[in-house]
Amino acid sequence: DGTQAGNYTDTDATFIVTQVGRFWDNSNYTYEGSVDDLRLYDRVLNTEEVDTIMNFTGPGLAGDINGDGKVNIEDFAELAEQWLWSGSAGAVDEDIVEDGSVDFIDFAELANQWLN
């Protein structure tokens, strides 16, 4: 909900072993299921930021603008149709990096996914 629930600073260790889906000491405390979205931030997100992330309905694969599960020439064509658009961040699917404009940064992200 964007509200910081607490914080902790470990002054004894120079690093902490971290694992996703299980307790760090390899005990039997494991997560049964799938993790489809994991993000780490160096700050607390506000309510609006959390809502934007959790209610995102754009393509699941960065660059998959038409939502067909692959990045290809069809996605490039859709990006080209919105080229140099500007407005609210993430308002159009072609704004892949959600910075409020459709430009070379979005093209670079699309191309990166297309080539991989």
UniProtKB/TrEMBL annotation:
UniProt-recorded name of the protein: Dockerin domain-containing protein
PROSITE patterns: DOCKERIN, EF_HAND_1
A GO biological-process term: polysaccharide catabolic process
Domain Dockerin span(s) in chain numbering: 58-116
Signal peptide (residue range): none
InterPro entries attached to this UniProt entry: ConA-like_dom_sf (IPR013320), Dockerin_dom (IPR016134), Dockerin_dom_sf (IPR036439), EF_Hand_1_Ca_BS (IPR018247)
Species whose genome carries this gene: marine sediment metagenome
